[in-house]
Amino acid sequence: MSWLRRLFSRKQLEADLDKELRFHFEFQVADKVRSGIPESEARRLTRIEFGGIEQIKEDCRERRGTMWLESLLQDVRYALRQLRKAPGFTLTAVLTLALGIGATTAIFTLVQQVMLQSLPVSRPDQLWRIGDQPHCCDWGGYSQDSDGEAGNWSLFSWEAYKLFRANTPGFQDLAALQGG
Amino acid sequence: MKKTDDRFDLPQGTLDLLIMRVVALGPIHGYAIAQRIQQISRDALQVQQGSLYPALHRLEYKKFLSSLWKPSETGRDAKFYELTSKGRIHLNAETENWARLTDVVSLILQGTLEGI
């Protein structure tokens, strides 16, 4: 029997275990009665000899190999029962978790977009921006931040652009965009 | 194992071996296994239910034993255990191990103390 089937036929296994131990018990009582002990006394003695029958059953269940899953399911069921009993606590816990996970996800999405993801070009490390401010071009994505305002681009005349393009052999190409 | 007077405790794992040996003789239920072990050992070993049934279930789980329900000598249904072919192989191997182990242990225990 596979452990999965063992798990689903739990009721049957429990009944069998009970029947098996009961059989042993009755046989032992019968043996004592045969040897001349009155039945009530024989039952009492057998019960003492048996010790805790529930303990024996528990030991047998543990040998069955599905005990870990069974106790896990028991724990889950117990947890659900407890949660149902305290709806206020449950609601608070669920909301806290939901908001926490939501906020974290949102922030990470932002950080991922702005700081972690590389530019959508094949070699982002070879991409440079030209500007006329000291910290114009190596800081924080597209913004220039020279005057504390994001998104300020260095402005050059068309002629200056053509001059740059002609005199920057270190770059493969130079591009500009026109505003307004 | 119950320990009184001339009775003694079994080393770990020995009970499995004894159970398999008794079951190897033919389909047998738990109560009879305990009785048989007690008889063969001339009452020196008394297997308690608390060790017998967990052992039986463990051996069944390991597929060394198989079981089926059928009427017992009293007419009531009982769970009869049988040795599987896997169990037979295991029993043979373990019996051999046991013989080797006891040989070695008694060789040492019975040897003269001069060599030590």
Characterise this structure.
The complex is a heterodimer of chains A (180) and B (116). Chain A has helices at residues 3-8, 10-34, 39-50, 53-64, 67-85, 87-116, 158-167. With 180 residues, chain A is mainly α. Chain B has a single domain, classed as Orthogonal Bundle (Arc Repressor Mutant, subunit A), CATH 1.10.10.10. Helices cover 52% and strands 14% of the residues of chain B. The model of chain B has no long low-confidence stretch (mean pLDDT 85). The longest helix of chain B is centred in the C-terminal third of the chain and has 26 residues, at 85-110. In chain B, strands 1-3-2 form a 3-stranded antiparallel sheet. In chain B, helix 1 crosses helix 2 (30-40).
Brief synopsis:
The complex is a heterodimer of chains A (180) and B (116). Chain A is mainly alpha-helical and 180 residues long. Chain A is 63% helix and 0% strand.
Q: Give the averaged pLDDT of chain A, no decimals.
A: 80
Q: Please give the domain count of chain A.
A: 3
How many individual helices of chain A? Answer: 7
Structural class of chain B: alpha+beta
CATH topology of chain B: Arc Repressor Mutant, subunit A
Query: Quick one: CATH superfamily of chain B?
Result: Winged helix-like DNA-binding domain superfamily/Winged helix DNA-binding domain
- Proportion of beta-strand residues of chain A: under 5%
Radius of gyration of chain A (CA) equals 39 Å
Mean residue pLDDT of chain B: 85
Oligomer: heterodimer
For the structure shown, list the relevant keywords.
heterodimer, A: 180 residues, mainly alpha, 3 domains, B: 116 residues, 3-stranded antiparallel β-sheet, 4 helices, 52% helix, elongated
Q: What is the fold's blueprint, element by element?
A:
The complex is a heterodimer of chains A (180) and B (116).
Chain A: H1 3-8, H2 10-34, H3 39-50, H4 53-64, H5 67-85, H6 87-116, H7 158-167
Chain B: H1 14-23, E1 28-29, H2 30-40, H3 49-61, E2 65-71, E3 77-83, H4 85-110
Antiparallel strand pairs in B: 1-3, 2-3
Helix pairs in contact in B: 1-2
